[in-house]
Specification:
The protein starts with a strand and ends in a 9-residue tail after the last helix. The protein has helices spanning 26-41, 46-51, 125-132; strands at residues 5-10, 58-65, 74-84, 88-97, 102-112. It has a five-stranded antiparallel β-sheet with strand order 1-3-4-5-2. By secondary structure, the chain is α+β, with helices and mostly antiparallel strands. It contains three helices and five strands, in the order βααββββα. The chain has one domain (5-132): Roll (Thiol Ester Dehydrase, Chain A). The chain is elongated, with a radius of gyration of 15 Å.
Length: 141
């Protein structure tokens, strides 16, 4: 079973578009916030990963929108690592709108592990351990 982190987010007015729905570009910010929570819950906040000399640039994004999210809705962003290769990993996301308890968005991002020179490197052992580790704190909101 994949180790999942859930990040709860309340939608702010400024995150919506003229039609009253969350602006599509903001979904990437929700993915990023959930991914950062995933790292924190496994004992290595992203800033610590960077301090160790690694970065995880995003090289591919895919999103499917299946429902609506509006101002003041609370969403639960579920995130987990679906696949890890030699130097890359894929995070999967599912967004549930807590007002309806419906899954409204799914997506993934691919990240390559690079060193300080921006050269791709093998995923270090501590990150591989994070992938298998259960979260230390399941309530990251």
């Amino acid at each position: 079973m994949k180790s999942v982190t859930v990040e709860r987010i309340r939608i702010r007015y400024g995150e919506t578009d003229q039609m009253g729905h969350v602006y599509y570009g903001n979904y990437m910010l929700f993915f990023e916030q959930a991914r950062a929570a995933w790292c924190r819950e496994r004992g290595a906040p992203y800033k610590e990963i960077e301090a160790m000399g690694y970065k995880l640039p995003c090289v591919e994004v895919w999103t499917k929108y299946r429902g609506e999210i509006k101002y003041d809705d609370v969403i639960a962003v579920r995130v987990w690592v679906e696949e890890a290769r030699r130097a890359a990993m894929q995070f999967q996301y599912e967004i549930v709108n807590e007002s309806s308890w419906k899954s409204v968005t799914e997506g993934y991002t691919w990240h390559v592990v690079v060193d300080e020179t921006m050269k791709a490197v093998s995923i270090p052992p501590f990150i591989r351990e994070m992938i298998e580790k259960e979260p230390e704190n399941s309530d990251s909101a």
